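Memo to structure team: turn this sequence into structure tokens by end of day. - J.P.
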Amino acid sequence: MNLPSTAPCGPAPALPANAESAWDPLTCFRKYNEFAASLEGWFGPPAIALWDALLVFQRERGIRGPMLEIGVWRGRSAALLALHAEPNSKLFLCDYKFHGPSIHRALELARPDKDLELVRIDGDSTNLHVHDIAREQFRKLRWMHIDGEHSARAVTSDMRAANTLLAPDGVLVIDDFFSWQYPQVTEAVLRYVRTQPEDFALFLCGYNKAYLARPHAVHRYLEYVASDLGDALAARGVDATLAKTTYPAEMNTFGVGPRRDGLALRGPDWEERTIRY
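Reply from structure team:
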């Protein structure tokens, strides 16, 4: 099924030599905010800014590929992915059970032309390993968002699917990490990372989500978080603190939340101005 598209916001092949220098990294963010208020969902402004910044980082580093969301609900976060999708690429949507018309409306607002292929995956996400996507998109996904069933069993299953599908330099995002309503989600993510350390490393958490990358690529994301993410969030209207409050050997993960103590970057309690990663 083909979905419409705007003038390209995401990475496009065969750009003229001067096109990247002229490209505005806030293009997709501004476009999204033109219609985001009309979309239902819990995808709030800080998380929107954070996704947009990371997706722009991927574009600027030449990280390309299809994307997938498990748990689409009404399409609020899927619409941002659609804006960032490359022309003629694919956006896979799984767990599409309840609000098809709302999802289509959100995606049509994001991509009103026709150069993005929307692929609907029916059925439970625990069956992804037997779906064609497991073979056709093996280690190709640039971005995967898990926001489906919030049981520990389902999150673990979805992370196993992500290990099959995520590209070597892709990002895995998991919803409701550190949510008081779903403590089992946090436990499932941390248990998976502890027991399968060769699959994913957690590099950032905050605004209700966890962000993971492949262990051999995670340093690229840690460097970006430490050096540029704070400014990128500020450019999108989010006044945040990025905290790295312990030694990398203990946990090499940044946290992000509302600005605290006037610090954009905060190290350990005993050495607040030192960031190690």
